[in-house]
Design a protein that fits this description.
It contains 8 helices and 22 strands. The protein is of the alpha+beta class. The protein has a single domain, classed as Jelly Rolls (Sandwich), CATH 2.60.120. Bound molecules: 2,5-dihydroxybenzoic acid. The site of 2,5-dihydroxybenzoic acid (GTQ) has 9 residues, from strand 3 and strand 10.
Amino acid sequence: MTPATSAKPAPPEPSRPERKAFYDAISAYSMHPLWEVLHSLVPQEPATNCVPCLWKYNEVRPHLMRACELITAEEAVRRVLILENPALRGQSAVTQSLFAGLQVILPGEIAPSHRHTQSALRFIVEGTGAYTAVDGERTAMRPGDFIITPSWTWHDHGSAAQTPVVWLDGLDIPMIRFFDAGFAQTDVNRSQAVVRTEGTSFARYGNNMAPVRHDAPFGATSPIFSYPYERSREALSALERGGPVDPWDGVKLRYINPLTGGYPMPTMATFMQSLPAGFDGKPYRQTDGAVFSVVEGRGSVSVERGDGKWNFDFSARDHFVIPSWHTARFKSEQGCVLFSFSDRPVHQALGIHAEERMVAG
Ligand code: GTQ
C-alpha cells in the first residue's frame, strides 16, 4: 500500500475573502468546492476519528445489573448497554462500521423474536443456561461460545439459568445504516417454535463433514449457529504446545464458514487467539478496526497512532477496541485468551485490506 514516491501535500491556504464569498454563493445551491476538503476526503493513510477504549468488566457489570432493575428484557426487546466509541458518542457505534453491546438476560426472561437484515454475533461473557433460538433451533450459551444470528433469520433469546447471563453482541448496524439497507420485522410469537433438536446444525456442519446434498441454508452466512469454546480452546492449546507461536498474534485462528472456508458472516470476521505466558508481541496495524473480548487470563495492549498513546491492562471479561490503522502490541505475563471481531471480510471483498507487521518495537 506504500507508494513508490509520496510527497507531503501543501497545507490548505486560509481562504481569501473573494473565495469565501464564492463558497457562500454556491452553498445556496447545495454545492461545495472539492479543493477545500480533498485532503481529508482522500487522506494519505487511514485517518479514523475513532479512538481506542477499554471497558473494564468490574466497572461495567454493576450498570448491567442496574439496567436489570430498571427494565425487563421483554420491555427493552434487547436489554443491551451499547459500547460506544468515545469519538462517536450518540452514533451507537464502536467503530465506523460496527456495533458492540453487552446484553443481559435474567432467569425466566425472554427477549422476543424478531428478524433484521443486520447480521449479529454473540460471544458469551458470563453465565450458563441461557439460549438463543435461530430458525427453529435453540442453542445453549456457555462462556466463550461464539454464536451466529444470520441476516433475516428469526431469533429470540431466553434463560433458564440460575444467574444473569451476559454476552457481547457484535452487529454490522452502522454498515447497514451507511447503505440505508436495513429492514426489520417483529414476530407474532414471543418465542419461536422449536422444530429441530439442539445440536442439529453442529452435527450437520460442525465436524468437518456436511450433508451430501446440502444447500447453504443461510446463503453467505455459516450454517453453524454455535462454535463451542471447548473446541476453540482445545485447538489453541494444541497449537500452543506444538508451536511455533506467531511473534505478532501469538496463536490466532479465524472462525470459518465450513461450506466455503470463508468468514462465518459476510460482514464480520471473528478470531480467537491465545497469548502464551511470557508473550511479548511485536507491533502491527491493520485497516480493520477490531473489538476484543478477554476470555481468560490477563495481559496488556499498547496502542499508538501519531502522538496518541494508550496502554490497557486487561483481564477476563474486559472489552476493548483497537481502531483502524492504530499500531497495537500485546503482552502477557501469565498468558491469556482473546476473542475478537472486525469488518475484515468487507475490506477484503473491496480489495482494500491492508496490514503491516513491524519488525522493530
Ligand atoms: O439480539 O437481536 O445488541 O437486534 C442490537 C440489536 C442485539 C438482537 C443488539 C439487536 C440485537
